[in-house]
Amino acid sequence: MKKLLCIVLALSMALMLLAGCGGGTSSSSSSSSAQDSSSASDSTSSSSSSSSSEESSQPSEEPVSLKWAVWDIDATAYYKPLIEAYTAQHSNVNIEMVDLGSTDYMTVLATQLAGGADDLDIITIKDIPGYANLVTLGMLEPLNDLSTNDTSLYGGTVEQITVDGKYYALPFRSDFWVVFYNKDLFDKAGVEYPTNDMTLDQYDELARKVTSGEGAEKVYGCHYHTWRSAVQLFGILDGQNTIVDGTYDFLKPYYERIIKEQDDGICMDFATLKTSNTHYSGVFYNNQCAMMNMGSWFIATQIEKVKAGESLATNWGIVKYPHPDGVEAGTTLGTITSLSVNSKSSNKQAAADFINFVCGEEGQKVVAGTGTIPAIKTDETMAAIAAIDGFPTDDASKEALNVVQTYLEMPLHEKSADIESALNSAHDNIMTENVSIDDGIAEMNEKVAAVLNG
Hints:
The protein is an alpha/beta fold.
């Protein structure tokens, strides 16, 4: 009898252990099974691993709560539609947004993660310097094995944020630079509109033709905001240089061109713009410039302001970014906004599944439907942007949305934040003409070399 009792107890304990293992696997899985199938492959045969992967490809029915670090919830159009679209397919998942504010977002985020914030699962990446910092600190989970998306769809941007063969984020929006122009000002000057294939020489010639007036009636042919990117990044369009190389002699012809335009009254004076804190949008809204090089993020804002009666530039369009000789039209520069998984999250697979949705073709259609340029630029998503009420109806503006190559404004580099600071200082000195172009570039070379060698 005692023997029989022992056997029964042993069988009961074995069954309890098996049930416990099964329950743990179920609760941690979601609609993507990369992590679970990877673990299974270490301890089972290849056929068992395949079977496990097929089973866990179905969404778990277990309730899952995810926290998503973001900024400016109320001012951002795509957060809620993305959550609604995802949870409509995954009713067991609840996603709570945590607004860290847009001011110093990446600094605040890094501070929270350094403090062990394992309750944040999905991380929105705002800029490349911040991304580089989080990767260096080990705060982001590699997505190579968690992502189910084809990285070739992102136009080369994933390759530009890959570190030692691993990428820790996937882009879901990707803004790029174009030229905004005021059709009424061109019509008044009797000058033909800009085209989708302009060299920098042609852009300069056009700007000079459409410049007119004096004082309050002055119309500038072109406008460059005070960011260094508005000038320096013309120099990276040939793919031969980057802004983190450490030597900047290649920037000289671009500074020479724009300083000449400034001195000739073709564009506004940099020092005046800087001291008056003039925003580029006001210059365009008030019909003060005929052309303005700016990011595609301004499209939705311009549409909104025209509808609200706040932009007087009601007859407008966009064309592709001007390019150096020998560079293909449609080559531009841009920024990406990406999603990552917190390396300390207890819901990595579920977080990755949401990221796969947002950064995949289905989620990208949702992003485009809000008037935001998605990271995957298919004919369908670009057509959705062009179909938005208020977008220019001319064919050239629609074609301007098609780019052939996008270079990141600030490439991935572990010291990108310090490089940025050094370049900004020298840029201001050159554009205010406090120093010569040669001396300003020498300052860049010296300061960035100190950063790189420090």
